[in-house]
Amino acid sequence: MGRALTNNAMEITMGRTFLRTVTLMLLSLIALYILKQSLQFYTPISIAEAMLHIRTDDILSLGFLLDLAYFFLLTIFLHLLWSLIITVSCSPWFQIIDKDNIRTQIWLIIMFAHIALVLSANAYLYPTSLLGFMRDTPLASPMGLFSLSLLLSFQFIWGVLSSLNRKVLLTLTLTCIALVLFFNLHRILPLHQTATSKPNIFIIGIDGLRPDHLALRDKKNTLTPHLNSFIAQSITYDKTYTPQGRTYVAWMSLLTGQYPVNHGARFNLTPPELVHKALPLVRELKQQNYKTSYAMDERRFNQIDHEYGFENIIGPKIGAADAIIANIADFPLINLFVNTPFSQLLFPYLSLNRAYGKAYDPYLFNEKVVSSLSTTRANFLSVHFCQLHWPFTSKEFIDPKQVNWKGNYNHFMYQGMLEKVDKQFNHFIELLSDRGYLNNAIIYLISDHGEGFMLDRDKLIALSSLSDKQSKLSVNSWGHGNNVLTQEQSDVLMAYRRFSDGKTVQEGKKISGTFSLIDIAPSLFDELNLSLNKSDKQFDGIILPKSTQSKDSNIFERNIFVESSLPVNAINTSFIDDRKVLSETASDYEVRENGRAVLQAERYPSLVSQKQRSVYYQKWQLAMLPDYDSLVLVNTLQKSWQPISSYHGDAPWQKMLAWLCAHYRDDYQFDKHNACKDTSRQVREVSSMLSSP
User: Fold this and answer.
1) Same domain, residue pair 266 and 171
2) At what angle do helices 362-371 and 409-434 cross, to 10 degrees?
3) Are 120 and 215 part of one and the same domain?
4) For residue 290, which of 385, 202, 365 has the smallest C-alpha distance?
5) 618: exposed, middle or buried (C-beta count within 10 Å: 0-12, 13-18, 19+)?
6) Closest CA to 268 of 597, 501, 617, 676
7) What is the largest CA-CA distance in the chain?
8) Model-level pTM?
9) Which UniProt keywords are present, listed alphabetically (predicted)?
């Protein structure tokens, strides 16, 4: 009778201990959240709204609510599980000690030891975490973490042994070992590709990489030694432009070989029903038995997925919840799970997500991508690295010794991140090489857009006296995709390299001319002897020359079109004010039932009418701006500009205007100042040429 009462009292005490642990755990979560709020200027919700422009009504989207509910419930479950581990760890002591006050003291010691371990591990592994305040302490060191982990592990094992019989314990142990081996098999036994008759095709994109920050343009640029070495052994295309300085639009143009007016994606987050998602390049390669993959480590604004024909998609989940979860998730226990083998199941919005920069592991992303490739078939992989994208965060601090501070924070951070993306790129190439994927391969290395930092060297000089109204024209802007006159936003890298037996088969060279990302798809069709179907739209791009002796006049005499994205004045600044962005853009977006944010289809024509449009020809750029009553002519060699209304030189701007008018002729209200009225005959001639097969 006395023994039964003792056991019952112990069981009640263990139950109370679990409840007390859960209560303290939840209070700790609240305290850590308040601490994070005190360290952030904007709340996570306001940041999320600023980035995705979510309207209040769209918060009721079923998919969006389910994504958030899953994250919050899983977060609570993990902390309940942690509370259970702490409670089990107390069990053997409670069997030995009867006094409640001593049991409470033991519980508190074990509880705070666990909290110290998790906080220290978070600070050591993710030092830029807002809750990484224990970094540089003895506990946040390999020896400190090992010692405390070993002590608490033995304590937990003792608790399990005292609570379970041996058969149950053995079953649990074998199950855990099997799961760990299963999820890490690709690390233990990395597979190598067998020889294939068809070349692997890798298109590697680096977000926001400016060519003028590479040794390609200036030998003094030494922040990217691996990229510099790779490019030096490649064929590079000197003057390459992106059709639009936005990632999704740039990639759609690259994969289709067409300008945005023809493939339908005029903005990031374009409604999918307005986009031509059938990609002939992907279709034809699949028919040639290629495994087609698309990988990207940030998906907020790029919705390319299986619906575009790819067999394999690698990266975080696409959805509006990404912005909120990534800004709320910085809690130690969550961070410790983000890069585990189970992370894609547990935290689909955080796993492999560069937008959650505090815990993003670029080398893990590389490993996931390369491990997903086929070892028996040829591969077509489009992969995009986003570490260079704003807000320029990573799980490790940048090295201030590598970059000189000149008062421009964004540019300082960008240069610091150049070193990190350079190492990621080198690691990726080494993985491909070590596993045999470069024994027969084609690589295109590109950037989707540049980045404006309002640098003095980027400024365009006005060549004529300007009126007060004309002088207010912005020719140098922050960011990307918002100003066609900021040359550094549209000037991109494009390099080609062919591998055989792991070695380059062509000499490194620079080819002069005017090129665009739309040239890659037709060039691959030509090199691989692929053909378009009769129902496919023709390519807007050309076949890229591989020789500096090319006699193709197209590379010098062609015109290249570049357009802007959504006009948002509030993001043309070094630091984004979320309230101004919200007031300017909130009415343009919606969150659909699947939880994805998209532009409202009914607002689409009006937004298209607000675009800036331009055409490049030789050294000239002609721009048509909806809020400026004169065409603008830019001399890209002299980095100068002036309104056409005051220009009296011999630039072929009338011919360029005819091209511009013909190319955008179907856009809603694109010619608000009737600049095309005097070129109607030329426009008809050009339009006829464009519409002919």
Assistant:
1) no
2) 30
3) no
4) 202
5) middle
6) 597
7) 109
8) 0.91
9) Membrane, Transmembrane, Transmembrane helix
Q: Are 441 and 432 in contact (CB under 8 A)?
A: yes
Q: How far is CA 210 from CA 30, 247, 385, 494, in A?
A: 42, 14, 14, 11
Task: Identify the DSSP state of 647.
Answer: -
Angle at 166 between CA 165 and CA 167, to 5 degrees: 95
Residue 20 structural domain: 2-183
455-508 pLDDT, tens digit each: 999 999 988 777 767 777 888 899 999 999 999 999 999 999 999 988 999 899
What is the model's pLDDT at position 7? 47
Residues 271, 601: Cα–Cα separation, whole Å: 6
3-class secondary-structure state, position 498: strand
Q: Does residue 168 or residue 643 have the better pLDDT?
A: 643
* pLDDT band at residue 403 under the 50/70/90 scheme: confident
Q: Mean pLDDT of all residues in the chain?
A: 88
Residues 162 and 681: their CA atoms lie apart, in Å, by 91
Distances (CA, A) of 488 to 67, 387, 444, 583: 37, 18, 21, 28
Structure tokens at 570: 């509030």
Spatial CA neighbour of 390 closest among 476, 481, 295: 481
- Return the pLDDT at 317: 95
**Residues 6 or more apart in contact with residue 320 via CB below 8 angstroms:** 52, 54, 58, 61, 64, 591, 595, 596, 597
d(CA 578, CA 570): 8
The total number of residues shown for the chain amounts to: 693
Q: For residues 237 and 224, what is the distance between their CA atoms, to the nearest angstrom?
A: 19
Three-state DSSP state, 427: helix
Q: Cα–Cα distance between 601 and 583 in angstroms, integer?
A: 19
Tally of CA atoms within 13 A in the half-sphere of 346 that contains its CB: 18
What torsion, rounded to 10 degrees, do the Cα atoms 532, 538, 540, 544 define? 30
Task: Please say which residue of 116, 151, 183 terminates a domain.
Answer: 183
Q: Quick check: helix, strand or coil at residue 292? A: strand
The C-alpha atoms of residue 216 and residue 236 are separated, in whole angstroms, by 9
With CA atoms as reference, report the closest residue to 518 among 250, 237, 208: 250
CATH number of the domain that residue 535 is part of: 3.40.720.10
Note whether 272 and 178 are same-domain residues: no
pLDDT, tens digit (0-9, with 9 covering 90-100), for 23-76: 999 999 999 988 888 877 555 555 555 444 455 566 678 888 999 999 999 999
Percent of residues in the chain assigned helix, strand, coil, to nearest 5: 50, 15, 40
Determine the average pLDDT of the residues in 525-543.
96
Given 507, 540, 558, the domain boundary residue is 558
pLDDT band at residue 184 under the 50/70/90 scheme: low
pLDDT for 401 equals 80
The answer to whether 514 and 558 have CB atoms below 8 angstroms apart is yes
Give dist(CA 192, CA 360) in Å, integer.
26
